[in-house]
Specification:
Structural class: alpha/beta
Helix content: 40-55%
Radius of gyration: 36 Å
Largest sheet: 7 strands, mixed
Number of helices: 18
Shape: elongated
Strand order of the largest sheet: 7-6-5-8-11-10-12
Length: 612
């Protein structure tokens, strides 16, 4: 169909540049992730090279690293191809936009004074008479707003902004009308240009003052010709109104080729801005974006693989260190695979608490062994030594040995001497011992006066198995207590700022979980990890400077009945329950069975939970 300026008007400029912006951001993300992957691979190699001679390292690590390098190289080549193809197609796309819609478009990302990142679009009409005739728009979170500049501040342009954008809420209508006016001015087609604005203003109820233009009148009205009569003016208005309807798309005089090619006018003119049109059959932008997306997922998989290798190296170093102090028998032992290791912190004087747990949520005997074998859930009471000199320790140690012989559910920390103010040290040694003994996805620490639903706990943890460096618990930020003699006094309070400050966010100490790479990190670095007075603060401090995902899971800190009971009836079974006022279940020996009956998930729940 031939183009005619007198019967054609641009109705809408479709903003398909969202594809450009999205692809640009995606490619930048890919580049950043590739850079991180390379750095981590290099760090792994350095870590491997610095390993002690006695470190047990998986013989397949070197081969895995080589495979990862090849995959990274392949992905880099693929990314370069995608970038070249995308650059070519986006260049065609921009030229097509300029030819089809009459605007040269420049897109830039910038940060506003309030810190919000926005995209600024600068439009200049191909019919512009000077470089100052530019339109500026800011796009942020699906909203596009015009920026007032010297050009849009002119009375004529400001009037159109008020009509089309402020009142009609249509940026496409504004740019289309501006294109026609610029075209008419350039081609000196003044009659139509002079008739459109009054008609549009009359339709919108806006009074527009038409200023006389002597030079134009001389060209339009030859000397000696009489002014137009009233009937002629009315006829001209009707004709102009008809032309306006035709050009605005409300009346169509030409049949469309197909129903799908019809252009529908909308109140806001934004319906077509989300359309992504093909720019050729051989290189579909959607196809390119899909390929870029697949590459992105591949790189994320590589990132997880690299994290896994880092974890394996750290774990092997940790196991080697533990084995070095335990003898050759331990070093030759292969760690048992598990989903989660649950270490129950207990003391010599807490036998009644341990028995109350064995009677409720901690399986015993064959059920405990079956839970480990079939579900990968390992449960152990964690305790050190009494510090009494002599073979076998003192009476407290021998009592624990006898209890272990009966139940087979203890983890003895040979290098730890029990004491309330040594909980931070106990936590470090627990993670090191657990990592050396079991190859688990998660390691949990829980106090012996907390009720736990094993099925719910393992199900919630299983959701994060694919994520590296995860720290799960009820995150809190309590006050730093500087007063001596009070419970939870912090001798190093001055390190946390002025008096009255709060701790950084960390999981409450009653129960929390860390992924195996974080447990391995604690195991490897335990000699240099600083210990604060409170064990939960110490753990938070060890992880605060790392790339760690903090998961605030409130199901791990439900209150005792009626709270956990109501939640159970509502279908939201709690993972753990305790009383905040007692930092555990108050009178846990007497109340644990009552809480278990009211809030327990049922004996079969753990067997239907996520398997290893």
């Amino acid at each position: 169909m031939n183009y005619s300026a007198s019967s054609t008007k641009v109705l809408r400029m479709v903003n398909t540049l969202a594809v450009d912006s999205e692809a640009k951001q995606t490619i930048e993300t890919l580049q950043a992730e590739l850079k991180k992957t390379k750095e981590r691979l290099q760090a792994i190699e350095e870590l491997k090279g610095q390993a002690d001679a006695g470190t047990v390292v998986d013989v397949n690590v070197a081969e895995k690293l080589a495979q990862l390098k090849n995959q990274v190289a392949t992905l880099e080549k693929r990314e370069e191809r995608y970038k070249a193809v995308f650059s070519e197609r986006i260049s065609v796309f921009r030229k097509a936009c300029c030819s089809l819609f009459g605007y040269k478009i420049v897109m830039n990302d910038e940060q506003q004074s309030n810190g919000i990142h926005v995209t600024r679009f600068t439009l200049q009409s191909v019919y512009a008479q000077s470089d100052d005739e530019k339109l500026e728009f800011v796009y942020e979170s699906g909203s596009t707003n015009i920026v007032v500049n010297g050009y849009t501040s002119q009375q004529e342009i400001a009037q159109q902004v008020e009509i089309f954008i402020r009142k009609m809420n249509s940026i496409p209508a504004f740019t289309a009308n501006l294109t026609m006016e610029s075209f008419n001015k350039r081609k000196q087609i003044c009659c139509l240009a002079g008739s459109l604005n009054p008609i549009s203003a009359a339709m919108l109820g806006v009074e527009v003052e038409l200023k006389a233009q002597p030079q134009l009148e001389k060209k339009l009205l030859p000397r000696g010709r009489a002014p137009l009569t009233g009937k002629a003016v009315a006829a001209l208005c009707v004709a102009s109104f008809a032309v306006g309807l035709l050009l605005s798309g409300r009346v169509s005089l030409l049949p469309s080729a197909s129903a799908s090619s019809k252009v529908k006018a909308t109140s806001d003119g934004s319906a077509g801005c989300d359309d992504n049109r093909k720019l050729g059959e051989s290189h579909d932008p959607k196809g390119i974006m899909n390929e870029v997306s697949r590459t992105h997922h591949a790189i994320r998989s590589l990132d997880k693989a690299v994290s896994s290798l880092e974890m394996e190296l750290a774990v092997e170093r940790a196991r080697s260190g533990v084995a070095g102090g335990a003898g050759a028998d331990v070093s030759s032992r292969v760690p048992q695979k598990a989903l989660v290791v649950i270490g129950i912190n207990t003391a010599f004087s807490s036998k009644k608490r341990r028995d109350s747990l064995r009677e409720t949520w901690v399986p015993t005997g064959e059920k405990l062994r079956r839970l480990e074998k079939e579900k990968g859930i390992v449960i152990r009471f964690v305790i050190g030594r009494s510090g009494t000199a002599g073979a076998g320790g003192g009476p407290a140690d021998r009592a624990i040995d006898a209890e272990e012989a009966d139940n087979k559910d203890f983890m003895r920390l040979e290098d730890h001497v029990e004491g309330y103010h040594e909980l931070s040290s106990k936590t470090r040694i627990y993670f090191a011992t657990a990592v050396a003994t079991w190859d688990a996805d998660f390691y949990v620490k829980v106090d012996d006066d907390v009720h736990v639903n094993l099925g719910m706990l393992t199900t919630r943890l299983a959701k994060y198995r694919a994520r590296p460096r995860v720290y799960v618990g009820c995150m809190k930020s309590g006050p730093v207590l500087s007063q001596r003699g009070v419970k939870y006094h912090e001798p190093e309070y001055w390190k946390f700022g002025d008096v009255g400050n709060k701790y950084f966010r960390h999981a409450t100490g009653q129960i929390y979980a860390v992924s195996k790479d974080l447990a391995a990190y604690i195991s490897v670095n335990q000699p240099i990890l600083h210990r604060y007075a409170n064990e939960d603060v110490s753990l938070g401090a060890w992880l605060i400077g790392l790339e760690v995902e903090h998961v605030d899971d409130r199901s791990m800190c439900c209150a005792t009945p009626p709270d956990c009971e109501w939640k159970k009836r509502a279908g939201n079974v709690c993972a753990a329950s305790f009383d905040w006022s007692c930092s555990g279940v108050c009178r846990s020996v007497d109340r644990m069975k009552l809480i278990h009956n009211a809030c327990g998930e049922g004996q079969e729940a753990v067997w239907s939970a996520a398997a290893t």
